[in-house]
């Protein structure tokens, strides 16, 4: 018996070392798959439960379980689960009495990051309303467009955004849309102050019968795309999608004892679905900020004992660009153990860990309206996720070859798409099934149809076109390469703008770079150009910039034109806007910014004069 046990133990040790050597991510894969299976069972139970169990019901259970637990920290104030629940009841009753809102009505929230955003949404949910989350940066035409998308019956806003609303009030009144201001008074015709009504309303619980017909496929939210290429599109977010997104924190091993720091806007999916809804799903505490602050970030984390942070790539970079403190100051003096987000560059990722400690960075890939996503549950720097059999089975997806010049998938003689090989960049598409639906955009059939791709792997199948180029490596890691619109073709080669931007920012003088392709008369494709900003006190170092691009980039990928700007125009989630830049091109007669041209003969960047511009137009200069 002893010999037998010794042999078994020996085999177990050998098996362990074999797995470690040949399957180094087995443990992480196993833990992730186990969590995913548990969450899948939960979601299945929610689908079949009658009446339907929503994220609101999860919040109400948390209120019953720990009413005195802090739900939100904001600007030095703390709000418990019980307090937020009562306030949301008051909001619901005030809106019910004043606006006559009922189940199925759509209401637009035009609010900044503050606790009233949370309890107003909860109050609307208790009435069975669908909430449209409006980007607080949009104005005029775009703001009106958002109403036409979702058919909202009312708009709720705050005093600080009143001026943005005033200019469209007459048009809203014409459409029968009522405007409510979370303020004690308002003298503007067409806007009703609501704060007094809320304060006088009862905080008694709302009847569940008010949302009796809501189910898992009902629309919970409209979340708008950034509008980098036009007017915003209202992505339809069902209650099923809310649950699925809220589970992301759980897959990262976040628990109810954690405290999460959210400075991303609540009108977007990352802040709302992952940050706020994820907080409710876990029953934990949320530290909410109006907006990201580099100087206050770590102070806030220390003050509130934050253990989980949300990020996007730019916030990570801003933190890494802060001055390094003295030897006596400890930048690792915090309790943050997990960072959840997307869009961080590999070099910034490595620097972040080096400066701020062993934080588990959980980079993910997803889209608000998409039906496929990934998460890097390992510590592999640079990857946005891993491919595993479970995900492939439940959410079929693939990478297909894509022609960036024609901006369409490559198809074979049978009219079917061609799958990209391992290690090859391809367009990510997710099969549209009952388990992985694509609900589309409200009031925009044309854009919804554009995202559907037919006859992908076999005749009659339908896939969701993510519009993103990714790469699966031989170890099953997933790497984001570029967005289709952000990739251009020059000299018969594909150029990834993010790669060029990374190289440009290696030049000491350059702070930020926005890379894009522009048309040149008489040439096919698009040639590389970059709009950049300079570090404070620095001038554009032509020689250093040339050195970086010529050393690390092939000739076809080197940006031939540089445009220096005081700031780069971005969306609310720090995505760089390119459409206007692309349209303006490198016409020195129209552009007031300083322009430079890569002179390959002189091996440097030189000012783009009118003479050089004319020579390029006349094709006297070879590009």
TrEMBL record:
Q: Which UniProt keywords apply?
A: Cell membrane, Fatty acid metabolism, Ligase, Lipid metabolism, Lipid transport, Membrane, Nucleotide-binding, Transmembrane, Transmembrane helix, Transport
User: Known catalysed reaction(s)?
Assistant: tetracosanoate + ATP + CoA = tetracosanoyl-CoA + AMP + diphosphate; a long-chain fatty acid + ATP + CoA = a long-chain fatty acyl-CoA + AMP + diphosphate; a very long-chain fatty acid + ATP + CoA = a very long-chain fatty acyl-CoA + AMP + diphosphate
The AMP-binding enzyme C-terminal domain extends over 503-575
GO annotation, cellular component aspect = endoplasmic reticulum membrane; plasma membrane
Membrane topology of this protein: Multi-pass membrane protein
Q: SUPFAM superfamilies under this entry?
A: Acetyl-CoA synthetase-like
Cross-referenced InterPro entries? AMP-bd_C, AMP-bd_C_sf, AMP-binding_CS, AMP-dep_synth/lig_dom, ANL_N_sf
Give the E.C. number(s). Answer: 6.2.1.3
Residue span(s) of domain AMP-dependent synthetase/ligase: 61-387
**Could you tell me the Gene Ontology terms of the biological process aspect for this record?**
long-chain fatty acid import into cell
Q: Which Pfam families does this one have?
A: AMP-binding, AMP-binding_C
Q: Which GO terms describe its molecular function?
A: long-chain fatty acid transmembrane transporter activity; long-chain fatty acid-CoA ligase activity; nucleotide binding
At the top level, the lineage of the source is: Eukaryota
Q: From the Swiss-Prot or TrEMBL record, state where the protein is found.
A: Cell membrane
Query: Does this entry carry the keyword Transport?
Result: yes
Family affiliation: Belongs to the ATP-dependent AMP-binding enzyme family.
Query: What name appears for this protein in its UniProt entry?
Result: long-chain-fatty-acid--CoA ligase
- What organism is the protein native to? Gouania willdenowi (Blunt-snouted clingfish)
Cite the source lineage: Eukaryota, Metazoa, Chordata, Craniata, Vertebrata
